Amino acid sequence: MEYSQVISPEHRGLFIIAIDQSGSMLEPFYNHSTIVSKSEAASILASAIIEELVLHSRQAFRLSDPCPYCDICAIGYSKLEVKSLLPGNSLILPITALNPDNIPITRRTVEYIDNNNRLQLVTECYREWVNPQASNITPTADMLNTVSVIVSEWCNNERNKDSMPPIIFNISDGIGYLECHKEHLELADKIKSTGTKHGNTLLFNICVEPLRGSTPLNFPNPDDIPLRHHAYSFAQLSSPMPEIFHPLAARYNPDAQPPYLCFSYNSLALRILPMLDIVVNWKMPQFNY
To answer: Residue 47: what are its φ and ψ, rounded to 5°?
Structure first.
């Protein structure tokens, strides 16, 4: 069955996180009553995904010897460049190369509006695997081309033929996607046409540009996104949700009917992590002592 392969040291997975770091990401992000910059929101989400992957590799009884069950890539794109956000010079690293002991705990003060319409401050603690950055323009085509090369090379590697297909999370405010050019659509299709014997590469797009009071879109049916909606063009680049994950989409969007898109708008609270627990059939090795 497609997308049912277990991710394990024998059948490694690949996770790619691409973060829009253009100047528009300095603007405020409104998620329910919480107010942060869009750059901070993207950093928090990316760091949460990386933290989840790292923790899966470091079980409580194997902290000093993590499990090499996946490869990871985190890239930022702005100022006509695409760069790695992880240590070292390689775009792809084994998950075992990331050591949480090397990442200090960050304390961040978050503003939110309570039920009485009063401003409140809350301190959150987390590992900031990815630092917030924002400047200049959005090199969309350069990012898509870089991701296309990464997934093509990974999928064409003989050792990955029997693995779960790569999973890509592209986090952006969608400003650079207001008009999806033919080149962008072709590059996205090229990415989505790669894969392994267990299915095509999955491209999830996460939009952090909600307007105040806007309705969340979790894995919508393409017909449910109004043509004039801010995120319409951005959503066009997303993968169709594989049938095996339809129950997941129905849980987060019970009013929609399949087909669904791998797309999320105004829904950062989802943080994608519940989805990871379902999309990935985690299988950690058993050890005998």
So the answer is: -65, -35
